[in-house]
Design goal:
By secondary structure, the protein is an all-alpha fold. It has 20 helices and 3 strands. A hairpin with a 4-residue loop joins β1 (2-4) and β2 (9-11).
């Protein structure tokens, strides 16, 4: 850590001018523009936001748009607003306490509960890796016609290379992840331009809640699981816990305001990309009566004759960028979960080798990749209560959070969000076990 005692601020070492710039801004110094003042604080939410536009989102949003048109747009908007709130709380927990969510659980919950939560979060991490690994492999396959097994190995190699940037400080890795986010966003700006959607229907369905049968509820749950991601709730608190540290109450509030802007910008971009995915599927497939186009491969193959070859290439590029970046973030989150709950650290390359096995099995036995991706998002939605409820509990505690403790209104709103998530998951469990009977 680069320690400046007179400022009561420490900044993670190895990040050059970013550290000094952050200190100057927090102290109220400098005459730079608002954007320049914000830049040293941008990054953690962009890393977390990658999980909100991973290949699982492609699967659920394409399925939702093809089957139901624009109807489930409101689910994406509502989920994204929930994500903004939850990620802001996660960032605040790391800033205020210096511990991440997994470490707080280890410190304050009985050991059997900690072990149970660790096991559940490991299952969530496996489901996450499955979606992300499969997505990147599909991207390579669709772009270069590389066999899926070889594409999976290539994905692992590139993930190792990206994770290796961590040794140079947080900035290089954040820059690469943010560049991937930019690629995905640009691809969908072009896709929206090509499909020419019905903007009046978009406006209507973005704010009017609707369902149409049990399958739409299942897809809505998948969208929620793909949008409010449990593993990055743990990761985001880790990204902020030692990045910029101060115990001065005034500086803490100022630091959190900058982190809130980081969350709003990053999650806003993720929300736009998610809505664009569903809009593309609705305007391209549902509008032409192609309701059965529910797989990523079908979407890629169908886009070319409908919109031209460029559209399918752009789609595949966005999928590849999504898979590679989210695979990296998933590995980071898995390490935070294990180290936080158990105080055990294993090398990222070893964790990647372990978590790639389920994906390789799916490829080897010939399971439908897109259906597998959708189901993996349902698994993620089941893990959400075990991340959201402890987060709300800890951030509402004055003794832990100090001046950044939740306001009563914030705790109430977050509690309502947690209750909605639990209720939806219980309904989904009932439908899964009893088939809607």
């Amino acid at each position: 850590m680069a320690n400046l005692e007179s400022t009561e601020i420490t900044v993670a070492a190895g990040n050059g001018n970013t550290a000094q710039h952050a200190i100057e801004v927090l102290q109220g110094g400098g005459k730079k523009s608002r954007l320049a003042r914000l830049l040293p604080f941008l990054g953690p939410a962009f890393v977390a936001s990658v999980a909100y536009m991973d290949p699982g989102n492609f699967a659920t949003n394409i399925s939702g748009g093809a089957q139901y048109g624009y109807m489930l747009l409101w689910v994406i908007l509502a989920s994204n607003l929930m994500a903004m709130l939850i990620q802001a709380l996660s960032a605040k927990l790391g800033i205020a306490t210096g511990l991440n969510l997994a470490e707080q659980c280890r410190e304050h919950f009985p050991k059997p509960v900690v072990l149970l939560m660790w096991g559940l979060m490991e299952l969530v991490a496996m489901a996450t890796d499955l979606a992300e690994f499969l997505g990147a492999a599909l991207g390579f396959y669709l772009l270069f016609n590389i066999p899926l097994l070889a594409a999976g190995i290539l994905t692992a190699i590139i993930t190792f290379v990206i994770l290796g940037l961590e040794r140079y400080g947080f900035r290089p890795l954040e820059a690469v992840i943010t560049a991937f986010v930019g690629v995905i966003a640009l691809c969908y700006v072009v896709e929206i331009f090509l499909v020419k959607p019905d903007w009046s229907l978009i406006a209507y369905h973005a704010v009017v809640p609707q369902f149409r049968g049990v399958e739409s509820v299942l897809l809505a749950s998948g969208i929620l699981g793909a949008t409010v991601m449990p593993h990055v709730i743990f990761l985001h608190s880790s990204l902020t816990q030692g990045r910029i540290v101060t115990r001065d109450p005034k500086l803490l509030r100022r630091l959190f305001r900058f982190e809130q802007l980081d969350v709003i910008i990053a999650m806003g971009a993720a929300g736009f990309i998610n809505m664009a995915m569903l809009v593309m599927a609705a305007a391209t497939f549902n509008a032409r009566g192609l309701n059965e186009v529910g797989s990523i491969e079908q979407a890629h193959e169908t886009l070319a004759p409908l919109l031209g070859s460029a559209s399918s290439v752009i789609f595949a590029i966005s999928l590849l960028a999504s898979g590679l970046s989210s695979s990296t973030v998933g590995t980071m989150a898995g390490q935070v979960i294990m180290q936080g709950f158990l105080r055990r650290h294993i090398a990222p390359w070893l964790r990647r080798l372990a978590t790639m096995l389920p994906s390789l099995i799916v490829i080897a036995v010939g399971l439908d990749p897109t259906r597998t991706l959708v189901l993996s998002q349902v698994v993620l939605s089941f893990g959400l209560p075990f991340a959201v409820i402890p987060l709300v509990y800890f951030t509402a505690r004055q003794d832990l959070m100090g001046v950044l403790v939740n306001r009563r209104s914030t705790t109430l709103l977050a509690s309502v969000v947690a209750a909605l998530i639990v209720a939806l998951n219980l309904f989904l469990l009932y439908q899964t076990l009893f088939g809607g009977a």
